[in-house]
Write the structure tokens for this entry.
Amino acid sequence: MILITGGAGYIGAHVALEWMVRGEEVLILDNLCNSHRSAIDRISTLAGKRPGFIYGDVRNRRLLDTLLRDYPIDAVVHCAGLKAVGESVREPLRYYDTNVGGSVVLCQAMAQAGVFRLVFSSSATVYGDCTRMPINEACATGQPTNPYGMSKLMCENVMKSVASSDPRWSIGLLRYFNPIGAHASGLLGEAPTSTPNNLLPYLLQVASGERQALSVYGQDYPTPDGTGVRDYIHVVDLALGHIRALEALRERRGVSIWNLGTGRGYSVLDVINAFEKVSGVRIPLNFEARRPGDIACCWADPQKSIDELGWQARYSLEQMLADAWRWQCNQREHEVVRQAN
Amino acid sequence: MILITGGAGYIGAHVALEWMVRGEEVLILDNLCNSHRSAIDRISTLAGKRPGFIYGDVRNRRLLDTLLRDYPIDAVVHCAGLKAVGESVREPLRYYDTNVGGSVVLCQAMAQAGVFRLVFSSSATVYGDCTRMPINEACATGQPTNPYGMSKLMCENVMKSVASSDPRWSIGLLRYFNPIGAHASGLLGEAPTSTPNNLLPYLLQVASGERQALSVYGQDYPTPDGTGVRDYIHVVDLALGHIRALEALRERRGVSIWNLGTGRGYSVLDVINAFEKVSGVRIPLNFEARRPGDIACCWADPQKSIDELGWQARYSLEQMLADAWRWQCNQREHEVVRQAN
């Protein structure tokens, strides 16, 4: 059985589902601070059985000790954490407390319980302002420009120290590029509880009429069309990367770092054009100045993950956008039904 | 009144004393995990009045809230933390929990109480493997080679984020070089509770017969005599740097970084020769291989502290060693008296 912290959230729920459809057991720990209990029901519907679910916080050492004692957990996927860049700038202590403090407490509890296999949700943001693309795992980590990114880098450094201190640890640091999309069923996807920070959730809210226009930050980057280029990856591909990492870590010791990206960059305008084609909806745009801290381009070299995990992203940009749009339309329907009742 | 966390420890006790001899009030918070309650008595003896003392842990949020409510604290000197490099490699989680977690909790409590002036015990170790000497504060921080150093860098980054999030903060990051020496009275000094990591406490234990010989790690560094060169600073000079920083921060906002070093480097053999001259005791040596992670040279450029704090180290190496030796001999006498009773 694996424990997934933050398993009701966007990434965690997809990891839970993919692990369960393999016939494996999952225990989800989530404090629902940025997710919904309904995700557990939806995972159950799609998997044909219920995951274990514990409502609680990863910083609660006593709770972790109890879970690790009462359930036959042999690995942990640590997705729990705060992830809004703008919020992290305003409330950095909450980010360090939750993300770094949570990781420290989790590792302490795991070590005490004798569970040493851990997969961690890291981010390409740890590469900082690295400008040589594509980025591979040997690139030095930089100085992330916001507390969210800094907290992810700190978590990685905590885990590297932990692995150096005891040879029993097997830790996979998964550096996510830009996860988007949703489950093909339309039942699982990203459900931001506040103003979205990232292109896709914002674009979806414009497409569905919740917002008037999409802000595009910067038209003067040194890219083919002047807008920023990112490596978007389907959340199901990302989840499958976690499954492969969990399996690979059975045979590995110490810390392994793997990029989870497609290896292909798309500009903001590429994404908008593809979305308009897939959805048939026109997206009104507002071009604005660059945002401080944003870089021009960022895409992965996924070769190490291909070689070591036998994993490669398979979904196209169009599939990511079609799945995201299906999810968004489903959400709207639920909303309408809820309001009608 | 200022709050000094870790105020019963080596650095904190000297800061407390120097602040009190100016007629100011001090409240000490210490969990005595690497210090002795007797330090409070000795500060009282030297200052002519008792500092406030609370036995407790800086990670205890409820305790901090109470202190900050019940005492008229207008600034905090945060010295509490673990500092043994070797131990940090073996028990990294304890270091991250205590040092980083402690800083996060302290900043949270201070913000809530409306106390925004903070002086932090950082370390030149945050410069990592910087090789251009002398080091000034504009040098990039590096990748410290052990969890102790990493935890100090994380604390600095937490505090930088905090200062960016709220313009009311005034934070001084004091990057210590190599504090040695003791109070001239022989009543306050470093009292390691386990095997010392650093040259001076080890040398003192050899001089006083507690250990047979002093290990010198590396004779083949690119330095005048082949042994490592460091910037040793008298702990009283260091404490005075804190006093000046506390005062300067009244007029500053945001984060200020100041090196606390003399600007002069001495080799291991320089220190041993000077000690033998000062004490009249011969130190048997064992030359050993370099220790992994040690660098050849490290000394400060103290110009920024001179310019902005009006502070400069004044004690010579001979004075540092004479004071350290007096402290060590006093300790021994107390030990003999204690055993005789």
Q: What stands out?
A: The CA atoms of residues 106 and 123 of chain B lie 19 Å apart. The radius of gyration of chain B is 19 Å. Chain B has one domain: 2-340. Residues 2-340 of chain B form a domain with the Rossmann fold fold (CATH 3.40.50.720).
